[in-house]
Amino acid sequence: MDDLGDLTSGQNVALVILSFLQADCGTSEYRKELLSLGKDFNLTRDINLNGPRPDDGDLETDGHVCSGSSVTAARGDVAPSLELQWPRDRAEAADVRQIAEGLREIADQFEHNIVAEATQNLSRNISASPSEQWKDHLRWEVDRVMRRVVGLEHLPQERVIVALTLTLVKGVCERTPRLLRNLFDTVLQRFSPARAR
């Protein structure tokens, strides 16, 4: 991943991928899958604090807390909101953010119709295949789109490939959120530093 900067850990690669996938996420089911995935990788936390909390109760007007559950019930109606857990080192966190933003900028340049067709093809192909073949389907679709897209030659090609890959994965997962975890793992395997060496 030479063109992607100094992503020395698989955790940072996962953070870039998740950051890309969560930007402008559509459906609530997709957001729930992203939240679950982020928690499993220790990359996110729910900033709305949904879920069980110890010693939760109602606040009385006199300042006392009683043991009722209306605060929990009211908080349960709030949709999960993701907050990424950036690296503690500020320079490293800035690098990861910059890479994710650069990939989103590249993705914005793809022609909508070409990406929509590729997303539909990828969705159809992975739905009919075992997950071991998803990487091949993803690679084939990215290669096919790369041959059709004009005007991105001036950009680092590895970044274009990563941005296109993540765009297709996001498109498929927004339609079928249950595929997120396996597709995330497929992309992580393809672009992790350990694999690149």
UniProtKB/TrEMBL annotation:
One of its GO terms (biological process) is positive regulation of release of cytochrome c from mitochondria. It is found in: Cytoplasm; Mitochondrion outer membrane. Its main location: cytoplasm. One of its GO terms (cellular component) is cytosol. Keywords: Apoptosis, Cytoplasm, Membrane, Mitochondrion, Mitochondrion outer membrane. The keyword Cytoplasm applies. The keyword Mitochondrion applies. InterPro entries: Bcl-2-like_sf, BID. It holds the Pfam family BID. This is BH3-interacting domain death agonist. It comes from Zoarces viviparus.
